[in-house]
Amino acid sequence: MTPDLPKISVAETLAAKIAALKPGALPAATTRKCEDLLIDVVGLCATARNEDYIASALKGCDDDGPCTAIGHARTLNAAGAAFVNGTAAHGEDFDDTFEGGPVHAGAVIVPAVLAACERHSPDGRMALIGIAVGTEVLCRLSLVVPKAVHKAGFHPTAVFGAIGAAAGVGAALGLNAAQIVDALGIAGSMAGGLIEYLAEGAWTKRLHAGWAAQSGIRAALLARAGFIGPRTVFEGTHGLFQGFAHTTHGDYDALVGDFGERWVTDTLAFKPYPCGTMAQPYIDCARRLAARGVRAEDIKEIVCEVAEGTVHRLWEPLIDKQRPRNGYAAKFATPYLLATGFVHGGVGLGAFTDSAIHDARVLALAAKVKFAIDPKNPYPANYTGHIRATMKDGSVIEQRQPHLRGGAKEPLTRRDVTDKFALNAAHGGWTSAQSDAALKLMAALYHGRIDLSSLRG
Fold first, then answer.
1. Can you say how many angstroms the Cα of residue 326 is from the centroid of all Cα atoms in its chain?
2. How many CB atoms lie within 10 A of CB 453?
3. How high is the pLDDT of residue 380?
4. Distance between CA 231 and CA 248 in Å, rounded?
5. Which residues make Cβ contacts (< 8 Å) with residue 358, sequence separation at least 6?
């Protein structure tokens, strides 16, 4: 150890706390959230099973093995299954969000831990602790230097996801503290994920969750086999935060301080709409505006107060957000999403087809939507929405949404989560009998042996 290196690193502190956690020790609220995550992720894998990007992901995998790609007859090795399932779960941008990040945990951690357990340790109790640990690590990492990773041009879910998946798989497979340190260090060299997909609506964001999931499995298995990773992977001069946030200074206590005592996992948000999270309160505002009897043709202009940190992803270039290039780009275009919610009373999976994004009524209203930066906006601690509509007669109508529906302040119920699952499964072509069987399987999964074979095909 050289003089400028810490005696005990951040990763070593974290690993010791992870290794100390035992099955059955999770709080009831955290267990319940992990149950919801499982239901949500399986439904998302089902809804994307027939999409073109999943066909390409499967075709591009030379990774056959014994593990389940949910909704498909073909089986893959653990890393391949994690990749395909993670890509599917994140593909429609309908997966959970941690509001403080923002990061998407379920699409990374659930596929990674399920695949690793299905192949190496089919124990539902260990899968539960692994999903809880991986989710907690991923979410807490996003609090160390908030917003900096996005600002640097990287996708935090991809960057922190590899680390979270390594931690979750390490916990699920029973790695000791030293092995977990190595797994975290190894995963740091597997992290990545550019947000250049925003330019033209390319597919790469979709694979970020899957790539992080499979990276976590590989890192944990390498560590278990004795491969050594840097213990200063987080705070080091050439560590994760220097590489992806351009600083070694951060609130590392947010990661390790009360880890295992307080679970931020409990606050995970489940989305009501399949699109960018920060746009969702604006959709709610638009729906309420329409419900008041306001007609789109009577609106002269709409100005939305927004957080500066969301502008480069959801508002600019404005013309592209008013008239998105394709269905995937439309998921990150608040003017289009707001207008869709107003015109159609909501935003569903059908809002992103080739015909939907050319809806003349939606595009006409989207062209009237602009934004103004609100320096007091609480993002990323809270996601709010605002619309100020100036009518052609000079009157002004405003709507505000104080928080994200489905989030900590207005969480979805278990019934909401299962209803969402049923809709997603039906969209993916599963029968009601298949959906019911999948829900029955998931209800017992954390209490017995991991067997996902009934989720194939």
1. 21
2. 12
3. 87
4. 14
5. none
SS3 content of the chain, % helix, strand, coil (to 5): 55, 10, 35
* Residue 381 near residue 99 (C-beta atoms within 8 A): yes
Position 166 pLDDT exceeds 90: yes
Helix axes 334-344, 280-291, angle to 10 degrees: 30
Structure tokens at 16: 């010791």
pLDDT digits (tens, 9 = 90+) for 51-102: 999 999 999 999 999 999 999 999 999 999 999 999 999 999 999 999 888 8
Say whether the peptide bond before residue 317 is cis (omega within 30 degrees of 0).
yes
The strand ranges marked E within 307-444 are 369-373, 385-391, 396-401
CA distance 77 to 64: 5
* Alpha carbon distance 161, 418 (integer Å): 25
Residue type, 302: I
How far is Cα 104 from Cα 96, in angstroms, rounded to an integer? 6
Which of 190-227 are b and which e, b meaning 16 or more Cβ less than 10 Å from the residue's Cβ?
bbbbebebbeebeebbbbbbbbbbbbbbbbbbbbbeee
Cβ-proximal residues to 174 (8 Å cutoff; 6+ apart), any chain = 121, 126
Mean pLDDT of 281-294: 97
CA distances (Å), origin 67, targets 79, 113, 117, 218:
9, 12, 10, 15
